[in-house]
Amino acid sequence: MSPKPVLKRVRGTFRAVVQTVAPRATTFEEEEWTWAESLVEDALARRPPSVRRQFKRFLRFLELTTIPRYGWTFSGLSNDKRLRTLRRLERSSIALVRRGVWGARTLGFLAVYGQEDVQARIGYRPDYRGWDARPDAASAATHLAAEEGETADAGRAHDTDGGEDA
Amino acid sequence: MKDERCNVLVVGSGAGGGTVAQRLMPLVKRGLRVLVLEQGPRLEDHEFNGSEVDMPPVLYEDGAGFLTADGSMTLAFGRAYGGSTVVYTGTSLLPPRRIIGTWEVPGLDADDLERRAQRYQKENSVHLLPPEKINENNHLFVKGCEAAGFRAEQFPVNVKGCRGSSLCNVGCPNGAKQGTNRVQLPAAEAGGVDVVTRATVTRIKAGVQGGIAEVTVADTTEGEAGLPSEWEPGEYRILADHVVLAGGSIGSSALLLRSGFDSRLPRIGQGFTCHPCFILVGEHPEPISNDVGHPKSFYVDAAAREGWLLETCMYFPFVTAKNLTGLGVDVTGFVEAFPRLQMILAMVCDEAVEENRIEVDSRGRPVVHYTFTYEVKERLALATRAAARIFFGAGALRVHAPLSVPTTLTWAEVSALNQRIQGDNFLPGRTSVSAAHLMGGCGMGHDAKDSVTDSWGRVHGFPWLRVADSSLFPNALEINPYLTVMALADRVAEGVLQEYGIS
User: Fold this and answer.
1) Residues 408..427 of B with a Cβ closer than 8 Å to A: which?
2) pLDDT digits (tens, 9 = 90+) for A77-89
3) Same domain assignment for residues B155 and B174
4) Residue from A83, A94, A102, A107 whose CB has the most chain B CBs within 10 Å, to mutate
5) Is there a domain that residue B383 lies in?
6) For B137, nearest residue in chain A (alpha carbons)
7) pLDDT of the residue at B503
8) Spatial CB neighbours of A109, under 8 Å, sequence gap ≥ 6
């Protein structure tokens, strides 16, 4: 049986964290948020219940911790003030708080850069066919190798027996 | 509970377990039974889809998110048919004589280890990639090293028919990397060795003759990657004349601890080391080829002199973001420039210290305690400075340096690297650090007071029990360890064969 969703009651805070750690998320449409949250829920579902509870507690703590300083909850602040808050907390003398920020930022990055569409938009385009799929890259690399004369470890010959690549 | 019987039980199928499995094939020819148990799944070729989201939960322990007890470091290790050899980059360096000598293990000879490792170099098609198959991310490392005064050496790699997908760390989609899942295990199975996947050994104990392993075989869930186990899901008790543990540093140590062997062997779990690493990036003005081609072709070895190494690398967008330090544009400014990124892995040598050890919790799950010593933090700073010089020497406009405040360095600051990058800036829980070379926990040595096994992997006081993985290392190896693991496992297997009169 799948564990209960974690983000249901802390969605606002979570989205605010994601937009702060990865500003690209400020332009996310609802469909992208759906992807983002499913990636994070899937990742959390594989973690022990204690980790899921800690994450939810940290988001609740984060939401309220800004009230004394700014008079607003975390999710109600501007991106600048949220970033300042997270930067202060990631240097907290309390290791648990630093760990909370690190965990939240990690899931925030997963929510954004774990999406294949986002990866394609930033220009990450691996292909299982490797060089065959990227003749442009192959030619640039060959040019650079020739230009440099491949001086690294010049005393060692490239093995022509060990593998099919040589 | 179902009962099974075998002559030799091997726990784990990575560099150690896969090697032992293949070497014990002569026993099968004699009508004896060799059984390998692997906790992770066996994947079909088409299931390696190259996704950094889909593959880690299938191939890595805790989805590559296993953290040390205080949450300050991520430890990456594989759990699949082939263990960590499915997810490494195949860099194949011989056991370093300098280090083997400092281990001072009675009966362990550097020449002997080298001979054995050379055999696996050949068997696994280890060679240097030709220049035209090396991408710009790697060429720029060489160029940067020349400019900064470092000597770049080329990694021999164990690939065969490499197409340059760049996806080694999530399992090669082309089956090119010659891990134990491609070489030793298929050979062993063809030779009659049984391999059972999705089988977790929960406990081992001494039997009347040999050992007894309690095993849980997991069922598959709907939509899960990998083939079902070769056995029916359920609980098993396996009687074996000999048991060889090859579950890796954490796996083998945790199994012995939760089985209560520490009452007679107090060194179990001690001596853990791991080569802590930073992923560093430099941004170039123009796009470079970085997501095509083998990711790890060159390195700089300053281990003997200053305790650090630099290796080329190329990780995926989420992994890259996670492993940089900081928040917002400090990180995303680099990740969003992915096609222009050069990447270097800064890896430092740690040492076995009392604080760093493996334990188990009340449910028998491994807990790794790790404290960053002053030396490790200073070495991380030295490695980061060297990497920054290489990035700028290669033409990078700016560099992400975790031990600098702020973390972004520009070309204009190149003369101030020593001041800007300081070990004191390391803050556990904030500074992102990871490790993939997990070593120690069942170290070799003289007797039970100073170690867990002898130089042949025999556990002190338990003649039926052996260890054959990186947990045997009494201290850090200071290079990528898999060929050393294979060489040690080869010795362990030889010892088992001798028990049956085969030399």
Assistant:
1) 427
2) 999 999 999 999 9
3) no
4) A102
5) yes
6) A141
7) 82
8) A21, A22, B318, B321, B322, B331, B335
Mean pLDDT of chain A: 89
One domain, residues B201 and B311: no
Q: Which residues of A touch B323 (CB under 8 A)?
A: none
In a domain, residue B342? The reply is: yes
Cis geometry, peptide bond prior to residue B26 (ω within 30 degrees of 0): no
Tell me: do B73 and B145 sit in the same domain: no
Q: What is the DSSP string of B54-83?
A: THHHHHBGGGGTEE-TTS--EE--B-STTG
Distance, CA of A4 to CA of A49 (rounded, Å): 10
pLDDT tens per residue across span B405-462? 999 999 999 999 999 999 999 999 999 999 999 999 999 999 999 999 999 999 999 9
Please tell me if residue A163 touches chain B, with a CB cutoff of 8 Å: yes
- Does B485 fall in a domain? yes
Domain count for chain B: 2
Contact call for residues B318 and B308 (beta carbons, < 8 A): no
Q: The domain that contains B33 carries what CATH number?
A: 3.50.50.60
Residue ranges for chain B with pLDDT beneath 50 = none
pLDDT at A23 over 80: yes
Same domain, B119 and B136: no
| Partners of residue B427 in chain A, C-beta under 8 Å | 91, 98
Q: Do B8 and B149 fall within a single domain? A: no
Asked if A162 has any chain B CB less than 8 Å from its own CB, the reply is yes
For residue B293, the domain's CATH number is 3.30.410
Beta strands per DSSP E along B401-474: 408-410, 434-435, 465-467
Q: Which residues 328-347 on chain B approach chain A with CB closer than 8 angstroms? A: 328-329, 331-332, 335-339
Q: How many CB atoms lie within 10 A of CB B1?
A: 8
**B202 falls within a domain:** yes
Could you report the per-residue pLDDT of B214-229, keeping only the tens digit for each?
999 999 988 899 999 9
Q: What is the ipTM of this complex?
A: 0.94
Tell me the three state secondary structure of residue B327: coil
Q: Higher-confidence residue: A6 or A162?
A: A6
The dihedral formed by the CA atoms of A64, A69, A74 and A78, expressed in degrees to the nearest 10: 170
Q: What per-residue confidence (pLDDT) applies to A137? A: 82
pLDDT beyond 80 at A130:
yes
- What is the domain range of residue B281? 131-159+277-349+373-432
Residues B326 and B416 in one domain: yes
Three-state secondary-structure class, residue B128: coil
CA-nearest residue to A99 within chain B is B429
pLDDT for the residue A1: 63
Distance between CA atoms of residues B65 and B437, nearest Å: 15
A57 by DSSP, 3-state: which?
Answer: helix
Please report, for chain A, the start and end positions of each structural domain, with discontinuous segments joined by +. Answer: 11-113
